[in-house]
C-alpha cells in the first residue's frame, strides 16, 4: 500500500519507564486519532535517533504527562514539580526539534505544548498559581491515584489557524496542569488565552506548515466537535504534506 492510499500514521509518545510497569498512554489519545482517520503508533522513550522513528510516520503528537525537568529550560525547582522523567524529556525534545526542523506536522497537548516551547529555547512557569493566582483553576488538587480535570473558558485569536478549523473563538476546555508558558521562543506566537487570567492556552509556529500546541486536553472532550476538529485538522495536515520533500529534508544522520 502506498503512502498516499493508506491512513496517516501518527506517532504518539508514551509515558516513561516506571519500575516494572509497561510503557503506557491513556487510550483517549488513540481514540481521538482513530476517530479523525489516522492510525496511532506508540513511541516509547529510549531511541536516540529521531529519524529512525519519524521517517516512516506522517505526523507526531506529544501528549500530556509529568513535569519537564527545570534544568531543560534553565528554570528553578518548585516543590509542586512532580513525575520528572529525564529520559522522556530528552526523547521528546529530540523528536520535537526534528519535527520542527523537517516540517513534520506536530501537535503538542498539555506537557506536549511545553516540550515544543522548551525545544525552541523558551521557558516555563514552574507553578501557575504563583504567577496567575487562583481566579482560574487550571488543575484541581489530586488525590492518591486520582486526577480531576477542570473546565474553564478560553479565547482564541480570530486570525489564528486554530480558530479557522475549530470555527469558534470562545470555547470551554478541560485542563489538568500547574505549569505554563513563561517565555515564547522565536518562531512561536500565542493564539489563545484563558479568559479570566490571560494564561497562554495555545501556540502556533509562524513558519512551520503545521505545528500547534494546546495547553488543555482535547482528547478528553470526545463528544465536543470543537475539540475533535483539532485532531481532524491535524490528521488532514499529515495527509496533505509532501512526503518526498520531508524525506529529502532529513539531515540529522
TrEMBL record:
<dbReference type="GO" id="GO:0005829">
    <property type="term" value="C:cytosol"/>
</dbReference>
<dbReference type="InterPro" id="IPR044668">
    <property type="entry name" value="PuuD-like"/>
</dbReference>
<dbReference type="Pfam" id="PF07722">
    <property type="entry name" value="Peptidase_C26"/>
</dbReference>
<dbReference type="InterPro" id="IPR011697">
    <property type="entry name" value="Peptidase_C26"/>
</dbReference>
<protein>
    <submittedName>
        <fullName>Peptidase C26</fullName>
    </submittedName>
</protein>
<dbReference type="GO" id="GO:0033969">
    <property type="term" value="F:gamma-glutamyl-gamma-aminobutyrate hydrolase activity"/>
</dbReference>
<dbReference type="GO" id="GO:0006598">
    <property type="term" value="P:polyamine catabolic process"/>
</dbReference>
<dbReference type="InterPro" id="IPR029062">
    <property type="entry name" value="Class_I_gatase-like"/>
</dbReference>
Amino acid at each position: 500500500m502506498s503512502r498516499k492510499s493508506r491512513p496517516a500514521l501518527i506517532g504518539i509518545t508514551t509515558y516513561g519507564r516506571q519500575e516494572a510497569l509497561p510503557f503506557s498512554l491513556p487510550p483517549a489519545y488513540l481514540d481521538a486519532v482513530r476517530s479523525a482517520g489516522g492510525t496511532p503508533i506508540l513511541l516509547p522513550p529510549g531511541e536516540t535517533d529521531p529519524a529512525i522513528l519519524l521517517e516512516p510516520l506522517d505526523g507526531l503528537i506529544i501528549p500530556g504527562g509529568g513535569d519537564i525537568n527545570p534544568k531543560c529550560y534553565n528554570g528553578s525547582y518548585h516543590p509542586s514539580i512532580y513525575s520528572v522523567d529525564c529520559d522522556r524529556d530528552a526523547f521528546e525534545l529530540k523528536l520535537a526539534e526534528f519535527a520542527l526542523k523537517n516540517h513534520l506536522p506536530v501537535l503538542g497537548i498539555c506537557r506536549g505544548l511545553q516540550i515544543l516551547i522548551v525545544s525552541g529555547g523558551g521557558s516555563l512557569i514552574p507553578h501557575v498559581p504563583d504567577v496567575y493566582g487562583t481566579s482560574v483553576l487550571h488543575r484541581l488538587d489530586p488525590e492518591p491515584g486520582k486526577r480531576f480535570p477542570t473546565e474553564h473558558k478560553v479565547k482564541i485569536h480570530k486570525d489564528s489557524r486554530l480558530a479557522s478549523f475549530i470555527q469558534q473563538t470562545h470555547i470551554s476546555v478541560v485542563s489538568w496542569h500547574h505549569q505554563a508558558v513563561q517565555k515564547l521562543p522565536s518562531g512561536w506566537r500565542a493564539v489563545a488565552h484563558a479568559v479570566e487570567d490571560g494564561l497562554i492556552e495555545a501556540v502556533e509556529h509562524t513558519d512551520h506548515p503545521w505545528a500547534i500546541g494546546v495547553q488543555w486536553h482535547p482528547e478528553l472532550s470526545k463528544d465536543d466537535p470543537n475539540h475533535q476538529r483539532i485532531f481532524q485538522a491535524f490528521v488532514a495536515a499529515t495527509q496533505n504534506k509532501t512526503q518526498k520533500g520531508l524525506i529529502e529534508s532529513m539531515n540529522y544522520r
